[in-house]
Amino acid sequence: MRILAAGNKSVPTPSAQLPARRSAGFTLLELLIVVAIMAIATAGVGLALRDAPATSLEREAQRLAALLESARAQSRMSASPVRWRATATGFAFDGLNGTTPPLKWLDADVQAATAEAVVLGPEPIIGPQQIRLVSISQPSRSLTIATDGVRPFSVVAGTP
């Protein structure tokens, strides 16, 4: 400790007032607190990103609309009729030659409430058609996939 003389009084320098301290990094307690905060935040994000039944129903409806349009295009190219129908475990496309589209729902909570078959061609104009999908766990949630016969199949709000 250095002391400077200023007249009769001794004044300690600022370095003498501070205690000696090591600066080697973070302590174990600080690191544990940071890891705990990160774990809680990660769990919160994981719970927030869970798939709701409404989201899975929307995803299945978009997927089916794309499959119907693909089958419609293949029907026009091959000049043979293609029919879509609901089955107990999913759905089926009758009349597609050489290709095997998916035949099951990605989510087991989705089913088709439409009993009649949908004819997809081979004519360019097929007439208005629709398919209603419902959630098994929440029957009040439904979506309809429809076309006016000219435009592509698209997802519209469900009707009871």
UniProtKB/TrEMBL annotation:
<feature type="transmembrane region" description="Helical">
    <location>
        <begin position="28"/>
        <end position="49"/>
    </location>
</feature>
<dbReference type="Pfam" id="PF07963">
    <property type="entry name" value="N_methyl"/>
</dbReference>
<protein>
    <submittedName>
        <fullName>Prepilin-type N-terminal cleavage/methylation domain-containing protein</fullName>
    </submittedName>
</protein>
<keyword id="KW-0812">Transmembrane</keyword>
<dbReference type="InterPro" id="IPR012902">
    <property type="entry name" value="N_methyl_site"/>
</dbReference>
<dbReference type="InterPro" id="IPR045584">
    <property type="entry name" value="Pilin-like"/>
</dbReference>
<keyword id="KW-1133">Transmembrane helix</keyword>
<keyword id="KW-0472">Membrane</keyword>
